[in-house]
Amino acid sequence: MSLTSTTTLATMKNTSMASLLVPLCLCFVLLRGASGLGGGSCDRIDRRIRALEPTRRVDSEAGHTEFYDERDGQLACAGVTAARITIQQNGLLLPSYSNSPRLAYVVQGKGSVGVVIPGCPETYQETSSSSQQEQEQEHDERRRGGRRGEERRRSSEGEESEEGQEETSRRSFEQSIRDEHQRITTVRQGDVVAIPAGAPFWVHNDGDGALVAIAVYDVSNNANQLDQTSRRFRLAGGQTSSERRREGESESSESETERGGEESYNILSGFDTELLAESMRVSRDTARKLQGRNDKRGNIVRVRRGGLHLLRPATERVTDEEMMRGANAGAAAAGNGVDEALCLMKLRENVADPMKADLYTPNGGRITVLNSQKLPVLKLIKMSVNRGVMRRNAILAPHWNINAHAAVYATSGSARLQVVSSEGRRVFDGELRRGQMVVVPQSFAVLGSAGDEGFAWVSFQTSDDAMNAPIVGKSSALRGMPADVLANAFGVSREEARRVKFGRGQELAIFSPKSGDRRDMLAAAA
Amino acid sequence: MSLTSTTTLATMKNTSMASLLVPLCLCFVLLRGASGLGGGSCDRIDRRIRALEPTRRVDSEAGHTEFYDERDGQLACAGVTAARITIQQNGLLLPSYSNSPRLAYVVQGKGSVGVVIPGCPETYQETSSSSQQEQEQEHDERRRGGRRGEERRRSSEGEESEEGQEETSRRSFEQSIRDEHQRITTVRQGDVVAIPAGAPFWVHNDGDGALVAIAVYDVSNNANQLDQTSRRFRLAGGQTSSERRREGESESSESETERGGEESYNILSGFDTELLAESMRVSRDTARKLQGRNDKRGNIVRVRRGGLHLLRPATERVTDEEMMRGANAGAAAAGNGVDEALCLMKLRENVADPMKADLYTPNGGRITVLNSQKLPVLKLIKMSVNRGVMRRNAILAPHWNINAHAAVYATSGSARLQVVSSEGRRVFDGELRRGQMVVVPQSFAVLGSAGDEGFAWVSFQTSDDAMNAPIVGKSSALRGMPADVLANAFGVSREEARRVKFGRGQELAIFSPKSGDRRDMLAAAA
Amino acid sequence: MSLTSTTTLATMKNTSMASLLVPLCLCFVLLRGASGLGGGSCDRIDRRIRALEPTRRVDSEAGHTEFYDERDGQLACAGVTAARITIQQNGLLLPSYSNSPRLAYVVQGKGSVGVVIPGCPETYQETSSSSQQEQEQEHDERRRGGRRGEERRRSSEGEESEEGQEETSRRSFEQSIRDEHQRITTVRQGDVVAIPAGAPFWVHNDGDGALVAIAVYDVSNNANQLDQTSRRFRLAGGQTSSERRREGESESSESETERGGEESYNILSGFDTELLAESMRVSRDTARKLQGRNDKRGNIVRVRRGGLHLLRPATERVTDEEMMRGANAGAAAAGNGVDEALCLMKLRENVADPMKADLYTPNGGRITVLNSQKLPVLKLIKMSVNRGVMRRNAILAPHWNINAHAAVYATSGSARLQVVSSEGRRVFDGELRRGQMVVVPQSFAVLGSAGDEGFAWVSFQTSDDAMNAPIVGKSSALRGMPADVLANAFGVSREEARRVKFGRGQELAIFSPKSGDRRDMLAAAA
């Protein structure tokens, strides 16, 4: 429903929605060149939208991925693809990158995510022989003297030069530094993680149960110059071990999901083994392992060797600010103030905490908006997210999305939704239940009501500053027009027109259910 | 013809055109992702362009809409659709919004336009019992104390709470405020009005004759993520009452114009009546009226009940500045400085006033340019407008549009135009007469001469800072090259090359006719 | 290979690549709305990429143009077209403009290029009777007093007014100014020249041998609203004299290359001769010559009349800074500070000078990056260039292009290249030899090794700030991940994972060949 994303903020602060519309000038600049995509794809949507379930599942050693049917029409119209990923306990989602940026919402569980921003420094560093104390000392040294300290240290080791200078530094590395890598982000239920196009990432489930996330890829994003599929370029792993189809999925598809299937190998496997070995200065045997042609574990593997040893700060869940300070020091050590902007960009934000809701209607529910004003990396991703929770029988106010499509995923409960096209045709009228997804196209009108168990959803929108226009209620379209215009337009009395305009008073986005339901609702409320 | 839009300014100020080219860097950023559209659509234009007349007409109770054939090829190439709207005296064009931004030029008449910017405050407010004096007092109060004054006043009314807090505020509203809505803009002949994508608007003809406007929709705009048609989402009104086709229009079209036709209802009609009634807190009977399934008046209705009561300042035509100050007070009252940028954006500008012409050639004519530097909302719309008037037999200098297509509509008189494609092929050679439209595609060369009655036009361009390059005259392409290069290129003498370069001296954009015509012309001049 | 463009800089300065990633936020904004194009075009690329040779050649009087087959799939995927232009000694490439921006690399020779930026002042001026001394004096005067000095001078000549004011100024022009035009840029081997969309340009070979350039047109650029072909709009010249086809090129093509063929005339030829003559105030006979219908010299003509007389500073190769100061004075004279930004924009930069290399590996080679940070006009063009030189058997590090396609043209030597798609399929595995071109699509992985004669190339990328991600080596994807993640991902020991990460030590982009080759290489080095 995208639903009041911004409307929301406005209400809580007793300001107008307009403060959130201001970035319109900018955000339109940032919008996707989506016209190309929408070209013909949204035509089909005029006929019928249906609640989507995943149609294809790819099993791996320690988890599975379920793909939503991207040929359904509504996902193509929105220019997105979607998948639900389940990582079993101690499972590792192997590193890959895509030509499209993506946003993922953690539906359940916790884990560690490493997003590698190409060109950024390895700010988590561990020296081999050094004690913790020495590490800190070294850290201070680097903080003061940049990399010079490190180099001085290395050169003082006075190693023999066997194969030229680069060999020396390699040896030096191998001995003084046990490992170094880019920062690691911890995630848990309710977190949104942003992954830019072309940036590889991996995920490790270090929690007690399964880690489940719903991911949406914005394939019509300007950052994607390739084609209208979300391709995964895997840096590791072999052919996927098994694949089960659902619902009579045809075999002739050439979509990405297909590519993600049985014919897919990691990109290293495409290189000549000898050339790869030489380029990496490793043995042919190691290169062959990297290519993983005989690896049957699939895309999600079980971590062996007594768990994954990840270097990171001691506290269970450090704040991003803390991590950024650490990264900052590293970046500063690189003698480079500029790169902090991107290298230190926060990639995660929690949208489930009720205390952080942007809109809250006591008898209706709440909505949390995550746009580029809250998480600047979304300016790059050009997407935004809404998280909504509605009480039983509460009403989702009629509205339309001004500048974005919305892919709505139900995380719990259910809602009855109606979506209306430009001809006034009802293209969707049905229930959206937990695990299902539906697209509400730009400009289409939507109205809904939560089921008896309430309704919770996460909505992925194809603009980093998605806006919507409520039809009734506070700051709505009808409220903005003179009562006399409405009276003449609808052929009603002026008094009726005023009731239409002001019937919902100051309510916004999520309306309380009718009085009869209210007692039940209050009883049901936590 | 887009025609020297900017060139123009340069001349008058004796500066170069370059000051207008500077925003190139920026404006390219803002350009439409038009490549998607242009993909194949402009191929057809290589064969032949013709002067377009409307091909389809939809009649309503108090006016009619004439659509230009969007399947002609040239409009598709430019990525625009066009329609001419006629509203009879006291007619009301019902509120609707579109997935595309649009610009309209008022060819004739006057009226009131209400553009609702979703999320902006209702800055025109009228309290029920208050006299004019009280209103002003209240206005001052709000100006000083923000909305707090209003709320204090409401709460002091001490109403009984029947159905909870929101009910109270609704009642309070109904009694203290007779009506409130967003600002209303008056328009008259020669005005350009900009309507952003997703923003609903309505128009009332409060003049003495018909109100006629030509509207162009930029469907390939980045703001449109939906598809390559300009869809109208109507907020009110029923099925259109009648429709007449012209010129053998085929029945199989699935274009927007079709959708705007007999099968179209307003978006509220697509919702379940009961759910709609509940969401608005109105009776089922009222909801049914809103859905308008039995309304046969069409899209333009006759205002009844003794005219439209519109709350607005006393002066007939207030300046936008005055209106903005008013709105400003309201916005400021909302305790929010940021939202003024968009909410207060001027949406109208007059381009017909001869005193405001940017280019004036005494014996040739004048051009008025309206780009985003003059009307900032055009940055959002990504379109611009030229208004031109040529004397009889004056010459439209040969030129090409650098960064935009131009849809040229003749408002009076006629001109002979020639348009030339990349192969040097003349794709258009004919007259453009009052009421006709022709597209001059980006990069295509154009040259013309006004007819015996002169020529007046308005040109809609698909960039908010459209530029063109004159081939000869001041600041022209040939002027910018060494005479010796031209001599060798054209195989002429150096002296001939200099005549080619300097033949038109300092003339720019509109050239005076040849001497023989001049006497007539001077006689004809006002 | 696009090849480490930016990576490079990072290394040499011992900073991270990140400083070069920062403009990501901005550059994505500037990216092409390429989704439209890529739509289906890149699908074909999954099957096979091949090294391209020109397939069609158009001969002219003093040179010829060779077009690369734009229907091959890989050029369409990248959204570019390419041509190699050869201008014989004293040949003149006639002025033309295009709907697409382009970048050209001078492979061989030297010449003069005039790019006319529409609307910018003619800053190279020569008065007819004035001696050099007078010219300088006049220049000073203009510098001080703007154009007023010039006008004062003209009016003091007290000419008779025959046909009104503009006639006077024309005469005045003809007598006081022998010629004036926009600046001329000298180019030589290794220069890159940027030509914005819609800006006409001409080239004169004033060197001792042939001038050869490879040009790439970015047809999917946002600046192009027309269609997915790079159309040439020629301002002069006639039908091309001859055309030879190669490799069974079919006759049915309707592509631009076709249009550039025998059916093409200059745009002036498309106008009515009489109207053209009148618009230019030249004789019908001169107009007919401009239209060039009988001109058989083609697109590149031989300069006659004792060479081309070009007004310009005395020094053989003035710096752009010097030229810009000159232009500056002119622009300032126009009383206009703003337009300097675009009018004075540098359009040329040398990328062949080894001393200017951004990356240099003693045993490997060097890369010079030209992006919008070095040449700001590239922000407008939305392209960038890499120039690379590799020693024999050196290794092109495995990497992928993050945000751009790369069209790689081999200028000398050869390399074995492997390109891998998302499924791990090797879509290209072959040699790229001098004169051949290959496209490395966005996200696709590439790895290569130079042949026995080394390898030199120029890579045109479809982003003004193209970035790539190395897979191994310094600042690489694998280096950014914890060794334990790699160990589990690849199923190797932790020690092997560390070798994979650190095997190439601090090497970046171009790796030295294996030890066995090194002696040869050192011997071969200059």
From TrEMBL, chains A, B, C:
Which stretches make up the Cupin type-1 domain? 49-288, 349-498
Record's keyword annotation contains DNA-binding: no
Q: Which residues form the signal peptide?
A: 1-36
Q: Compositional bias of type Low complexity: which residue ranges?
A: 125-134
Which residue intervals make up region (Disordered)? Answer: 120-177, 233-265
Q: Which UniProt keywords apply?
A: Disulfide bond, Seed storage protein, Signal, Storage protein
SUBUNIT field: Hexamer; each subunit is composed of an acidic and a basic chain derived from a single precursor and linked by a disulfide bond.
* Family of this protein: Belongs to the 11S seed storage protein (globulins) family.
Summarize the protein's role.
Answer: Seed storage protein.
Record-given protein name: Cupin type-1 domain-containing protein
State the taxonomy lineage: Eukaryota, Viridiplantae, Streptophyta, Embryophyta, Tracheophyta
